[in-house]
């Protein structure tokens, strides 16, 4: 008798256990669908952009080498010329120049936050810099257009638009990225390293310059590459201040274009499927390939972390 | 030069740089606010834009931005949290998992314009959603998913492992543990991260140019039926957001007061972003104090 009650109990228990198992599957399937959506999205993104971008070469017969090295961009004449080198040059020059401006500033800010004035830095400077990251890019473009461009027009020959204005706007935009990573790297530095250096009689600057900087170099580079990647893909802020003339400029203050600005400006004005439109997708493909390159550089740098 | 002098000079330079950065930010904010706030009035915030005459407002654009933000969050939050839970709780360390991590990393560093182009090709043309709020919301979802995944992972990783083990020890299933133990503890982090993401969505323009469109049909703000063409709530109508509007009037604005409108709209955008930022901070702090024993 007792045994059968026990059996009944265990039977009931098994019955009760079932909804739990069903619930487990709900969780598993739901989260899996979410991650699958993400992975499928990125694959279709790569596929669609690549197939559109490659059709310039396959369907329209444009020579890929000519596209990358040509300097003449005349898509609307009888025998259209598609030389995208000015755009590629514009993208690289603005983003690298922006990193050259922003990297020392970001490093100094990080040193200030971690070493010089941790209290004030963490409470005030760091939130301020994070706030910079939140400002929309069109607002940067607007400020660049109404402050930096007129300023450059007065100070230097030319219209004020061009690589210098673009790089300056971008440098403010990527400063938060570089600073945040530099700050994290410096604060992860083991105290023993610093204390050892101080114990040998080194000054604070010697410690920063000879110990902290070399040890955190891979992370600092990661921050800079992330900044360059962000600057490289930025579209509207640059487009507003760069002038958008499709040729390689002779000075930093002459109108030029970037990959993103060319895409932004012409995508709406060309018919889907025409060679003029397809070649813009090729520019997008170059942009995408560069993103991959940046991601792999960052991965490589992360592998070289010394801490 | 002695090492001590160099140290002093370097310290001075670093101090100056820090001061310079603060000055740049304050100058930036001050410039936008001083130039723009004077132009903000109730009329400016609610009236429709004028293409050629002066005196246009940003009413529909402001509404579009807010509506698009809500739509995007409705799609992004469940997807992002789900994917984040998978990455932090279900994914076993394997080649596949590290591959997914790489994919997420790549997606997070994709330029927003590429996401916009993908939206144009697939959402607008292939799926036939047209230039619409819905296409825009999906494009922004793609753009923000990696961020949402990272935030969720961060939040879940911050939960003390003892809490999870205690729940398992009581015989509670994994999914139930995630839902009723891990997620509530991670909520402050996830919520403040989501608000920061919302600020990003609010200011994004490049991904929207070719998905949500650059024009806004005449809206009838008395018609709240989401199926009508002129209803503001119709998700399948083209919608120019505030950020796109700023870009458009700066590059091709014909109205005589375009610079003022751009300044006013920028100020509105900045104020909203500041509200999101400070709100996220305050809420995060409040919830941490409320939910945990930390003082």
Question: Could you characterize the architecture of this molecule?
Answer:
The complex is a heterodimer of chains A (307) and B (295). By secondary structure, chain A is mainly alpha-helical. Chain A has a domain at 86-268 and 290-303: MetI-like (MetI-like fold, Orthogonal Bundle). In chain A, 78% of the residues lie in helices and 1% in strands. Chain A has 12 helices and 2 strands. Chain A has a two-stranded antiparallel ribbon with strand order 1-2. In chain A, a hairpin with a 6-residue loop joins strand 1 (73-74) and strand 2. Chain A is globular. The N and C termini of chain A lie far apart (68 Å). The model of chain A has no long low-confidence stretch (mean pLDDT 85). By secondary structure, chain B is mainly α. Chain B folds into 2 domains: 1-39; 42-294, MetI-like (MetI-like fold, Orthogonal Bundle), CATH 1.10.3720.10. Chain B has 10 helices and no strands. Chain B has helices spanning 3-37, 42-46, 59-90, 95-108, 112-126, 133-157, 161-169, 174-203, 242-252, 258-291. Chain B is globular, with a radius of gyration of 23 Å. The chains are: A mainly alpha (307), B mainly alpha (295). At the A-B interface, helix 1, helix 3, helix 4, helix 5 and helix 8 of A face helix 1, helix 3, helix 4, helix 5 and helix 6 of B. Chain B: It is found in: Cell membrane. Chain B: The chain crosses the membrane at residues 12-34, 66-87, 99-121, 127-147, 181-202, 261-280.
């Amino acid at each position: 008798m007792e045994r059968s009650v026990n059996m009944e109990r265990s039977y009931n228990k098994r019955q009760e256990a079932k909804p739990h198992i069903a619930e487990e599957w709900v969780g598993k399937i739901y989260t899996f669908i979410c991650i699958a959506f993400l992975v499928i999205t990125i694959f279709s993104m790569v596929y669609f952009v690549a197939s559109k971008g490659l059709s310039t070469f396959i369907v329209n017969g444009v020579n890929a080498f000519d596209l990358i090295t040509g300097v003449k961009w005349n898509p609307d004449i009888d025998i259209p010329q598609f030389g995208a080198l000015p755009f590629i040059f514009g993208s690289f020059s603005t983003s690298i120049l922006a990193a050259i401006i922003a990297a020392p500033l970001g490093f100094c800010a990080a040193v200030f936050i971690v070493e010089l004035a941790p209290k004030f830095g963490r409470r005030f400077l760091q939130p301020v810099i994070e706030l910079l990251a939140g400002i929309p890019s069109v607002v940067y473009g607007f400020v660049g257009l109404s402050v930096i461009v007129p300023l450059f027009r007065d100070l230097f020959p030319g219209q004020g638009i061009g690589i210098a204005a673009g790089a300056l706007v971008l440098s403010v935009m990527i400063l938060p990225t570089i600073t945040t990573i530099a700050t994290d790297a410096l604060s992860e530095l083991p105290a023993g390293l610093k204390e050892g250096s101080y114990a040998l009689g080194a000054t604070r600057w010697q410690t920063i310059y000879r110990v902290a900087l070399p040890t955190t170099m891979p992370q600092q580079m990661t921050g800079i590459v992330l900044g360059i990647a962000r600057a490289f893909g930025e579209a509207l802020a640059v487009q507003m201040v760069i002038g958008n003339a499709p040729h390689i400029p002779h000075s930093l203050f002459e109108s030029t274009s970037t990959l993103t600005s060319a895409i932004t400006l012409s995508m709406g004005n060309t018919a889907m499927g025409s060679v003029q439109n397809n070649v813009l997708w090729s520019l997008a493909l170059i942009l995408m390939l560069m993103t991959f390159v940046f991601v792999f550089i960052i991965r490589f740098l992360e592998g070289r972390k010394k801490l | 030069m002695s090492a001590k002098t160099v140290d002093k000079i370097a310290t001075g330079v670093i101090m100056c740089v820090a001061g310079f950065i603060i000055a740049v930010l304050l100058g930036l904010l001050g410039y936008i606010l001083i130039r723009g706030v004077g132009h903000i009035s109730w009329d400016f915030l609610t009236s429709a834009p004028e293409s050629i005459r002066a005196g246009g407002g940003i009413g529909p654009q402001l509404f579009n931005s807010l509506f698009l933000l809500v739509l995007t969050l409705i799609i992004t939050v469940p997807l992002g949290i789900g994917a984040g839970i998978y990455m932090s709780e279900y994914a076993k360390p394997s080649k596949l998992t590290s591959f997914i991590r790489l994919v997420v990393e790549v997606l997070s560093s994709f330029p927003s314009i590429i996401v916009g182009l993908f939206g144009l090709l697939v959402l607008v043309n292939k799926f036939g959603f047209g230039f619409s709020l819905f296409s825009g919301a999906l494009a922004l979802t793609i753009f923000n998913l990696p961020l949402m995944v990272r935030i969720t992972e961060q939040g879940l990783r911050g939960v003390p492992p003892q809490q999870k083990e205690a729940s398992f020890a009581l015989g509670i299933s994994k999914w139930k543990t995630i839902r009723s133990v891990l997620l509530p503890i991670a909520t402050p982090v996830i919520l403040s991260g989501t608000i920061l993401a919302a600020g990003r969505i609010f200011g994004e323009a490049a991904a929207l140019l070719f998905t949500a469109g650059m024009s806004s049909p005449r809206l009838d703000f008395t018609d709240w039926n989401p199926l009508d063409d002129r209803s503001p709530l119709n998700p399948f109508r083209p919608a120019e957001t505030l950020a796109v509007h700023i870009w458009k009037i700066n590059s091709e604005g014909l109205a005589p007061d375009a610079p003022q409108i751009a300044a006013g709209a920028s100020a509105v955008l900045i104020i909203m972003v500041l509200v999101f930022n400070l709100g996220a901070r305050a809420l995060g702090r409040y919830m941490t104090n409320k939910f945990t024993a930390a003082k």
